[in-house]
Every structure is written in C-alpha cells, then in structure tokens.
Amino acid sequence: MTKNTIFRSLIAGAFLCFSGWAVGQPGGFGRSPQINPDKTVTFRINAPNAQDVKLSVQSEKGPVQMVKGERGSWSVTVGPVKPDIYPYSFIVDGIQVMDAGNMYYFPNERFKGSLLDVRGDSSLIHSIRDVPHGTVTYEYYPSAEGTTGTVLVYTPPGYNKNPGVKYPVFYLVSGTTDTEETWFKVGKANLILDNLIAEGKAKPMIIVMPYGNIEARIAEQKGGLKPADPADRESAEAIARSKTFERDLVDNLIPYIEKNYRVIANSENRAIGGFSRGGGQTLRTGFGNMDKFAWICCYSAYLSTTELERDFKKVVGNPKETNQKLKLLWVSVGTEDRLYNPTTEFINYLKAKDINYKSLITSGGHTWMNTKAYLANTAPLLFK
Amino acid sequence: MTKNTIFRSLIAGAFLCFSGWAVGQPGGFGRSPQINPDKTVTFRINAPNAQDVKLSVQSEKGPVQMVKGERGSWSVTVGPVKPDIYPYSFIVDGIQVMDAGNMYYFPNERFKGSLLDVRGDSSLIHSIRDVPHGTVTYEYYPSAEGTTGTVLVYTPPGYNKNPGVKYPVFYLVSGTTDTEETWFKVGKANLILDNLIAEGKAKPMIIVMPYGNIEARIAEQKGGLKPADPADRESAEAIARSKTFERDLVDNLIPYIEKNYRVIANSENRAIGGFSRGGGQTLRTGFGNMDKFAWICCYSAYLSTTELERDFKKVVGNPKETNQKLKLLWVSVGTEDRLYNPTTEFINYLKAKDINYKSLITSGGHTWMNTKAYLANTAPLLFK
Q1: Residue A352: which region, alpha, beta or left (left: phi > 0; alpha: psi -120 to 50)?
Q2: In this predicted model, what pLDDT tens digit does every residue of A124-141 receive, in sequence order?
Q3: Could you give all domains of chain A from N- to C-terminal order, each with its CATH number?
Q4: Whole-model pTM?
Q5: Which of A312, B77, B144, B270 has the most C-beta neighbours closer than 10 Å?
Q6: Interchain proximity A103–B109, CB inside 8 Å
Q7: Parallel/antiparallel/unpaired status of strands A53-57 and A34-35
Q8: How much is the ipTM here?
C-alpha cells in the first residue's frame, strides 16, 4: 500500500462507516490475516496506545506475543499452519478484539472471534468446490413459551428440482455460547455435505441447525435477564436446560420442519448430532426419544455414568433392544480435549453394557477443527 | 448477579470458549446493553487496563465518554433512545471493540459493530411479529471470473406452499464495506416485508441481496490483495467497480435467480434498490439497463450531473421514453446525511429534466435506521 492509499482508505473507513465520526480502523495498516506462500500467517493490528497485544489463534497452543512496529502497528507471524479454519482474536491489554481486516466472524453469544482460513494445496472437505451446492435457509418457527425460534436449514443440491423426493434429516447442535449460525459459519456443515454428496459418499440429507440456548431466547424475547450458562455440565441445572432444549426440539422444531420440508418422518431417517454442550443435548435427547432417532452422533461430549444409570436405565439396561433401535451411536473426542477422560469413561461404560457404538479418537482439543472432521467422518454413515 | 454467579460465568467463559486458555470476557460483569424501562440504555465493558473508553452508538451524535467503576468495569447510560436498531461499539484506547455481552453483530468487511435493538411500546415495522414469515436463504452462484458468489434470497411467506405462483424480484444492495448479510441482519429486509405483506401493504416479492464488492471477492478467491475502496464515489475507479458489479448482477446473478426461483422475468416485475454505494450501483445499473428494471429505489445516494450527462444521456435526455419505462424512480435522503447536498442536486436535476421521480426527505443521517425506513416506504409501491 502506498502512503496515499493508506490515507485514502483510512479516510474512507472513517467517512463511510460509522456515520460522521471517525473510528480507527485497525486493518488500515496492512493485510490481516496474511497467509504467506509457506503457510505461515502474519497477523496485524493497529493499536498505537496499547501496552500489550497478544494473538489468540487456535492453531497455536496458547496466546502469542505480538510486536509493536512503527506507527503503532503490532504484528506477528505464526506457523507454518496446517490447512484448516481456526478461530482467532487479538488480546489488546486484556480485551478481546476481532480482526478489523477480516469479514469472517465466529457467531457466538459472548466471545468475538474472527476466522483464519488456511487453504490446502489440494481442496479440503470443507472448501468451496466447483460442485452442486445446497442452500442454507434462515427460518422462524413457533418455539417454547410463545417465542419465535430461529433455525438454519441446509437443503442438499437439487432439493428444489426434485419436488417428488423426500429426504432424511440430521439435527445438528452447536456448543455452549454458540448460536444457530455456528455450524454454518464455522462448522461449514453445508460445504462438507455438498462435497461428500458430490463424491457419492453421503446420502443427500437435510441438516437442521437449531439454537441450543432456549432459556436465553425466552429471556430475550420476554424481557428477562439471560441466565448464565451452568458451570458444570453434569449439574441439575445443565440437565434441566438440556430438557428444555429437548422439549423444544421434539415438540416445536421437528413438527415445524416436517410440515415445511419434504422429509421422511421416521426414526430411521432422523439423526441427531452435536458438539460439546450440543453433544450432551444430543445424547440426552437421543436416549430420551429412542422412537424418534435411530442415529446419534456425539462430538466431544459424554454423559456421566451417574446420569446414565439414573435417567437412561431403559436404554443402557436393555442392550439388545437399544442395539436394535440404534443404527449408529457415534462418539468422538480428541486426546487433548479437556473432556477426553469423561468421554473415554463414557465409551468404556457403553462397551461394558454391550451397547454398540463407533468411536473415533483423534489428536487435538475441544475445537471446531476437530468437530468439522467428526462431521465429515459421520455424515457418510448416516441413513445407510 | 451474585459474586458466585459472576465467578462461575467467567470460569465457564474461559473454560468453554477458546479451548484451554483464558480470555477475559468483558460481558461478565453485568448485562450490556441493558435497556431500562424509561428507554435509557446502559452499556458496560470490563476493561481494567484501559486508559480511556468511549461508547460509539448511532443513537447519539458522537462518541460518549464511559466512566470507570470498581473492578475495572466501564459504563455509561444514554437516552432515552427512540425505538430503533442502532449499530454501536466501544472505543477502548482507540480500538473498536464489540460488546461481548451481545450476540447481534453488524456484518461488515471492516468495522466490528454490535446492534442495539430498542423496542417500541408497540411493534415497529422491522419487529418480529406473530405473522407468517418468509425465509432468507444463502445461495452460491457462479460469479465473475470463475469465482463463487454468495447472495441472500428472501422468499415471502407461502413461497413453498404455492408452487404455481411466480413472484416479482427486488434486487437490494448494501453499502460500502457492507456484505450480502447487512440488509438481512441490520436492514431487517425480511421482517419489514413479512410485516408489510401481512398488513396487505406490499405485494409478496422475492428480495435478492448481493455482495457489492465483486473485486474483493475475486481477490480473495484468487489469492490477490483486496483492493481498497475508492475514496471518491464519483471517481473513475468507483464507476469502473460499479460496472463490475453491474455486469455480475446482469450476466450472472439475475440468470441464476431466474433459473432457481419462480420469478416473473420482465422489467415490470424487476426492481433494484440500494443504500449508499449500493444506491449508486442501483442508479448506474438501473439507468444502464432500462430494459431490465422498471423500478429504481435510491437510498442515501445520487449520481453527479457530470456522470448523468456523460454516461446516461439516453436516459436523462429522453424524459418521455424514460418516464414510460420507469414505473418508479425513488430518491431518499436525510437532512443530516453527508450526501444530502449532492442528493438534493440530483433530485433538482431530475426535476429540471422532467424525469418523473418520488422523493422522501427525512431527518437523520447516513444510517441504517434511515435506510430501513426508506425500504418500508418504498416496498409498498413496488410492482403495483
């Protein structure tokens, strides 16, 4: 960038964006993120008044110190980075800041992250390829306590061209603080399915991506205070809130989808899956509604032995019936995931109880990089 | 919030969000934004290390100083605020920061804003009402230079229930640095139309919301450097880039929409409208393709007399033919808009040339609050 261009783009930024009064545009002093030919990545932020700036990117094990350059621009180069999509943000004197140069964001109730997309030398399973694309539709549906629910619905390529065809449905739930957009914007569920379908690996299916925090929606729409998330995922509060989600899904969302989309409405053609809190909601909703879901995919989550013995005795106590009903019970976790140990205990419990399951243990942590891979591994198994 | 709840929610935030390493969650110390019963609004951010924190909210004329309280939490109360949706952010030592307590964001290439939604005592035209809802669909389409384009498509309530019905189409373009999502997330085009259709005020129509910055998409997908936006909207560069947009719309997007949606494919059933840069693109594309668009809606934008005389002589020099072709030429602007003067000149020029137009001059500036109102005023006129 020439000085003149920089000046013009700063002026344009201040002038065009927030009507009338200037806001510093940290992206003005150079590209960020800049993916270099060797797959190292350079991040930049203009923060002339800051005492300390760190980069927090999920390709690295922890925060990375950034270095102040001339004119108050901080930068750092990390990597080479394995091709994938990584959430990141800057930590400016302790405050989480998105990358002003990047328009791709992590939809979340709380943290504000940008997305680093490092492409591979060959296309990845979540890349946009030159294949037929499905669409993702924002829907409103009548949800709990008279509120209006929001949900995203992926329909596979050709859905609108094949009015006689009905499809199976995969309900796919995001994690704590995520929104109904996270499986779309971060998880790339639509592109992963587009690619798997084009390769003939997955059956064309509808994917329904709900918002997992029903209490927050009710509070927002009725004017109450949004409740904090339960700190302990095994707590009574966490279980009660999972139940609210389950009731909304079963009583409100599934009927809405089945009324408005061409779906095959039986358990053999209905799957549920989820990441983190969504994985817990998946197990509870699946085990609690064995007549409704024959496919259960749990990504980076578990249920405790205590809860299984107490609330799902019918499922875990009758392996023959359970194995007959469930076409797939999938459990995935990374060895660096903070939930690795309880998830392993969960898997061992299933094994001890003679409940059929498939598991995939990978490297990596409690991340959307991993959960994307789990989706790519499980979608080909569904509805077959 | 009790101390214990705060502690738990901070722990949960650090624990659940960015895998493994803690990030301060500025929203942890209290609700933000908090809309009080008298429609004043309290904003809060936890920034213990900051020297200076301001609030930048479009309900106010300029940045508002925030005050540091105990434990490093800054807050300020503004208003009473007129019910509407206002973009806002915090300015922490000169850096733009979103509100961590708020999940509603302003989709933009550059600035990172949150959205303040102050509801009215009675429902506003952009509110979610208990009426039939249309849907908004993310589509991929084959765009310029072999790239994959992204576009949002609103279909009105009942679209999927009425397979024999064809609809008119309104192409609706956002402003500089906005994305294809901005008319949806900030402009609430879908809810405004849902409500107008339910009241019998607007005809059911499809709304197509493209991304306006085609050069940036090409650069991104082909690995080039995204070009800075032209500083001057009358410059040769601005006009050339508007032409790229026009060609993509006419050659790629319209054919895609007409192939994939049930539309009435003629000029009487095709409208184009836009805000700011999108308004300029609207005028250039509309005047340049009079056989394609009989409805042109320009919100907070204009063309210069020089450009009109040079590039659109056929349109402005033949008022009789132009007036016959155009069912509506609409121009709106606010008296505090920085483009008020050139827009007024544009209107006066149309008048002097005997070109039929309708105009609505309002108070307010170059804002999404105004452009939402312009959409609500023009949509009822279309296709009638």
Answers
A1: alpha
A2: 999 999 999 999 999 999
A3: 3-118 (2.60.40.10), 135-381 (3.40.50.1820)
A4: 0.92
A5: B270
A6: yes
A7: unpaired
A8: 0.90
